[in-house]
Amino acid sequence: VADVTLRSRINSVLSAQAALDEAVEKFVAMRTVEGENLKKDILLKGERIRTLVAEVKERSPLVVVEYQEKLNNRLKDLLGGVDVDPQRIATEVAVFADRGCVDEEVTRLESHLIQLKDILDGGGQVGRKLDFLIQEMNRESNTIASKANDIQIVKATIELKSEIEKIREQIQNLE
């Protein structure tokens, strides 16, 4: 009788162990699929960010040209057609261009996008690395927004910040 009871308990334990092993396998498989889906989503958002950064990069030099034209026209209107020293205008435009230059920030964002992909492709625990990287991307986009003297760049920066925030929310689900 004791032998039958012992065997019954052993079979119950083995059955429970098999069920637990199967549940753990399914859980790990589900987490793997979820992780791959998050990775794809983050990479898609990264591509959208890359497009927005390219728009800022393309638009940025045009802002200086437009400023110079506006300045010339405004001065002609104010001075009644009297010619203005071209050297003085060039100096003003140079100061404006220097203040609004976002080349460094664009370059850093492009670098951060490469790092984003590398971190995701590297696997392992990526949550903290990505969290730090997203903070840096936010910092660069904030700097671009503060330097922007152009509505199109401001709009692109707002979208940029929105996409970065979406990634930040997604990485909260990663380890």
Give structural attributes.
88% helix, 175 residues, mainly alpha
Task: Tell me the number of strands.
Answer: 0
Distance between the termini: 51 Å
The succession of helices and strands, N to C, reads HHHHH
H/I helix tally: 5
* Helix-and-strand structural type: mainly alpha
- Mind telling me the C-alpha Rg? 28 Å
Q: Can you give the helix content as a percent range? A: over 70%
- Please tell me what the overall shape is: rod-shaped
Tell me what the structure shows:
The model has no long low-confidence stretch (mean pLDDT about 90). The longest helix has about 80 residues, at about 1-80. With about 180 residues, the chain is mainly alpha-helical. The protein is built from five helices and no strands. α1 (about 1-80) packs antiparallel against α5 (about 150-170) and α4 (about 125-145) packs antiparallel against α5 (about 150-170).
What would you say about this model in short?
With 175 residues, this protein is mostly helical.
SSE arrangement:
Elements: H1 2-78, H2 86-100, H3 103-122, H4 127-147, H5 151-171
